[in-house]
Amino acid sequence: FDLKNDDFTKLDELGQGNGGSVMKVQHVPTGTIMAKKVVLIDAKPAERKKILLELQIMHDCDSPYIISSYGAYLAEPNICICMEFMDKGSFDGIYKRIGAIDIKVVGKVAVAVLEGLRYLYDIHRIIHRDIKPSNILCNSNGDIKLCDFGVSGELINSIANTFVGTSIYMSPERIQGATYSVKSDIWSLGITLIELSVGQFPFSGSFDDDDDDDSDLPHVPEHEESPPPQNHRDSLQVPLSAATKRRNRRRSKGVSLHGGPMMMSIIELMHQIVNEPSPRLPTGKFGAEAEAFVDGCLEKDVDKRRTPGQLFDYAWILSSRQNGVDMKAWAATF
Ligand code: ATP
Ligand code: MG
């Protein structure tokens, strides 16, 4: 495909993230329906070239568990990435629409993500770096595929948004500055699986318990005027109480990373991920096999956390592969 802006008709807005926005489009010369991601970048010509070169890896991916790519092109000051359109959208949208997802379907998601990660790593030596429900897509054929994997280090560097690379699915070691490994993706998978089965991001419950008592965290008294911020640390403390309330209201819509008082809740969340025990599936609700798998993903100590290879041998993965769920029929229910 020789892709350029003039050849596309916009059909729908699919969503917006920190890195850019995604539209459903038709490529008129070929009639192909695509998902087009537009990312605002801040990069010099040499860097732009490198991004396009790196994005080529996406084009070379050929796996049933990875979104296929039609190519990428520059449309100053944006870069446009054209990919396979998945008509059922991402799993965050799906569970927000239909509620907590049946554990057998979640098992299929686990299999697909592990297979996708194995493909990216074994064939292309890529670590995904951004496993979360919004990057796991579904179509009406019942296929489950990964998108938004870290093919381009140069693109990550060039995205004109400070919060890129910060994610609420980040592992404790990443928050503490360790380099990325495939095991960081496994942590994010564990968090994702709990979120889909329970129908809620797992750390939110622990925020709720102490709305007005942020115990060990810096806290500004509710009805007092805050002094003008003295330094960076102070300025982060000021909005805390207000942020706690706002957070509770926003939580049902998911946690946003965008600016302002939300910044404090992100820091608070990072603090929890590092210092609190890992979240777990509620005991006895989804079966011991699923619980053991999620525990294997959410081991805080990286050395003890399971590798994708080890996780393939877990009973839950073996049984999920042949659990008889008709994914196509499931995808037709919403
Ligand atoms: P973040 O920017 O933090 O990664 P995000 O994944 O939600 O968040 P985007 O990657 O910009 O943000 O995607 C926005 C939305 O577009 C997604 O939530 C998803 O529902 C939809 N989307 C992305 N790619 C496709 C696709 N290939 N087919 C169908 N829908 C898609
Ligand atoms: Mg995404």
From TrEMBL:
The chain holds residues 106 to 439 of 439 of the full protein. Residues 8-317 form the Protein kinase domain. GO terms for molecular function: ATP binding; protein serine/threonine kinase activity; protein serine/threonine/tyrosine kinase activity. It comes from the Eukaryota. It comes from Mycena venus. GO terms for biological process: MAPK cascade. Keywords: ATP-binding, Kinase, Nucleotide-binding, Serine/threonine-protein kinase, Transferase. Residues 244-253 have a biased composition (Basic residues). Residues 216-235 have a biased composition (Basic and acidic residues). Residues 207-259 are annotated as: Disordered. Belongs to the protein kinase superfamily. STE Ser/Thr protein kinase family. MAP kinase kinase subfamily. This is STE/STE7/MEK1 protein kinase. ATP binds at K37. The lineage of its organism: Eukaryota, Fungi, Dikarya, Basidiomycota, Agaricomycotina.
